[in-house]
């Protein structure tokens, strides 16, 4: 149960929270955590490595210390354990590009249009849709690479959770750069996948798939998932981070398309942000639903029961759900009747 706030200082912490976010993004853009990991530990060394004058850098470091990202002892700075693991490039669990490219570069400025989304003012939105956000090649590249970094962990978790039982075909709807398809194909040698996404995104996906050595098993179908023709007789249809990003009317359309595309007995897998049933959070999932209101006026927030009811109306049976990333995403799995 979410604890109700009782003090103005708690409200102030929320109001000032964005400053800590910008401190994190600034440090990532300066490659500060990399420098600390490589032994640049004094203020003078860090200043020389980053090109930031010492007084300004000391101010940034003070903020990073205040939120626990940077340590300081005996005149030397260091990475906190989480920063060392997740914010240093080339570390196996590096997550910094997701924060830099998607949160800082795209989500953060888009939220300036939230008021317009809440009022239903389409003219004041940051973009008129997700496809508009991805219409610029540079922004599409940044978004896709960030999304790939953010999806690899969930994709690996899901690939270990599912049983494929001889499933040979996967349709990855709005599959982005192919993180899920790549993980699924790596763990299931007989599986072949098709990714549907906007042409500007599939161009980026092609490089990731080639780097993974899976160009012969993962096909690309450029187009809007709500309009392009889907291949039929699929064993699995996957929708990851899709239903939260579209308008309410598109949700039922996509579920109907998934039902038609599946072979009898095939499974629909929905992975997305989902609220708890009391709609009191969790906060990370709620925040992403709120973000989509800066891009369009018709998205809705969803719980697992909301999705279950829509799946059943679309003709699916045996609907089940589970948590994938605690407090952020869940999965709903449904089956097309034989």
Rg value: 22 Å
* Secondary-structure element series: HHHHHEEHHHHHEHEHEEHEHHEE
Question: How far apart lie the N and C ends?
Answer: 41 Å
Computed structural class: alpha/beta
Number of domains: 2
CATH architecture of the largest domain: 3-Layer(aba) Sandwich
Q: What would you give as the CATH superfamily of the largest domain?
A: Vaccinia Virus protein VP39
Any idea of the CATH topology of the largest domain? Rossmann fold
Shape descriptor reads globular
- Strand order, main sheet: write it out: 5-4-3-6-7-9-8
Characterize the biggest β-sheet: 7 strands, mixed
* Number of H/I helices: 15
Q: Into which percentage range does the β-strand content fall?
A: 15-25%
Question: How would you portray this structure in words?
Answer:
This protein has about 350 residues and is of the alpha/beta class. It folds into two domains: about 10-90, Orthogonal Bundle (Arc Repressor Mutant, subunit A); about 100-335, Vaccinia Virus protein VP39 (Rossmann fold). The chain is built from 15 helices and nine strands. The chain has helices spanning about 10-15, 15-30, 30-35, 45-50, 55-65, 80-85, 95-110, 115-120, 130-135, 135-160, 180-185, 200-210, 250-260, 285-290, 305-315, and strands at about 70-75, 75-80, 170-175, 190-195, 220, 235-240, 260-275, 315-325, 330-335. The strands form two sheets. Strands 5-4-3-6-7-9-8 form a seven-stranded mixed β-sheet, with helices on both faces. Strands 1-2 form a two-stranded antiparallel sheet. α10 runs parallel beside α11 (about 180-185). It is globular, with a radius of gyration of 22 Å. The model has no long low-confidence stretch (mean pLDDT about 90).
């Amino acid at each position: 149960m979410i604890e109700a706030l009782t003090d103005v200082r708690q409200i102030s912490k929320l109001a000032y929270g964005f400053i800590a976010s910008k401190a994190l993004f600034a440090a990532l853009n300066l490659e500060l955590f990399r420098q600390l990991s490589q032994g640049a530990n004094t203020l003078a060394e860090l200043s020389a490595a980053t090109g930031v004058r010492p007084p300004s850098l000391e101010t940034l470091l003070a903020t990073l210390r205040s939120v626990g990202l940077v340590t300081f002892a005996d005149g030397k700075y260091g990475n906190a354990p989480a920063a060392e693991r997740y914010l240093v490039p080339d570390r196996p669990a590096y997550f910094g590009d997701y924060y830099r490219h998607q949160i800082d570069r795209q989500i953060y400025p888009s939220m300036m249009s939230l008021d317009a989304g809440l009022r239903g003012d389409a003219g004041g939105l940051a973009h008129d849709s997700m496809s508009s956000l991805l219409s610029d090649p540079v922004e599409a590249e940044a978004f896709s690479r960030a999304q790939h970094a953010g999806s690899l962990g969930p994709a690996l978790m899901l690939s270990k959770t599912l049983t494929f039982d001889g499933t040979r075909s996967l349709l990855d709807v709005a599959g982005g750069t192919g993180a899920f398809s790549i993980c699924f194909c790596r763990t299931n040698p007989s599986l072949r996948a098709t990714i549907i996404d906007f042409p500007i995104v599939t161009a980026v996906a092609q490089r990731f798939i080639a780097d993974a050595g899976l160009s012969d098993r993962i096909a690309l179908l450029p187009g809007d998932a709500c309009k392009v023709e889907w291949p039929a007789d699929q064993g699995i249809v996957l929708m990851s981070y899709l239903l939260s990003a579209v308008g309410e009317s598109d949700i039922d359309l996509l579920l109907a398309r998934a039902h038609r595309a599946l072979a009898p007995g095939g499974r629909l897998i929905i992975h997305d942000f989902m609220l708890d049933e009391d709609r009191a959070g969790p906060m990370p999932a709620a925040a992403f639903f709120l973000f989509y209101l800066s891009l369009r006026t018709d998205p809705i927030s969803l719980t697992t029961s909301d999705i279950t009811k829509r799946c059943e109306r679309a003709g699916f049976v045996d609907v089940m759900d589970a948590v994938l990333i605690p407090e952020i995403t869940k999965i709903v799995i449904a089956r097309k009747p034989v």
